[in-house]
Amino acid sequence: YYSLKISKTMIEGLLNEIRRASEALLSDGTLQSERGNKAAGLRARKASMQLERLTKAFRKASLEASKNKKQ
Predict the structure, then answer these.
(1) Where are the alpha helices (DSSP H) in the chain?
(2) Which of 35, 36, 56, 71 falls between 20 and 30 A from 29, CA-CA?
(3) 3-11: long-range contacts, CB 8 A cutoff, minimum separation 24
(4) What is the pTM of this model?
């Protein structure tokens, strides 16, 4: 039970971070595409790399929570 609670908290935190990184990516990506803002393009690429790491961590935490729930 205890590890499931930790995983749930971890998943909620990861989802919040994913939401923030997604919003940054969309905002900066829009600035780059609509206004040609090169700095925004750099920030968008950085956010996309952060999203990649966060989604991998989310997948790992989600699988762990599923395993713990079955036990």
Answers:
(1) 2-35, 38-70
(2) 56
(3) 3/64, 3/68, 4/65, 4/68, 4/69, 7/61, 7/64, 7/65, 7/68, 8/65, 10/61, 11/58, 11/61, 11/62, 11/65
(4) 0.82
C-alpha distances in Å from residue 14, one per residue of 1, 47, 53: 20, 14, 10
φ, ψ of residue 36 to 5 degrees: the values are: 70, 25
Q: Please name the residues in contact with 51: beta carbons below 8 A apart, sequence gap of 6 or more.
A: 18, 21, 22, 25
The reported pLDDT for the residue numbered 4 is: 54
Q: The tokens of 18 are what?
A: 């994913």
pLDDT digit string, tens, across residues 24-56 = 999 999 999 999 999 999 999 999 999 999 999
CA 20 distance to own-chain centroid: 7
Q: Rounded to whole angstroms, how far apart are CA atoms 21 and 58?
A: 13
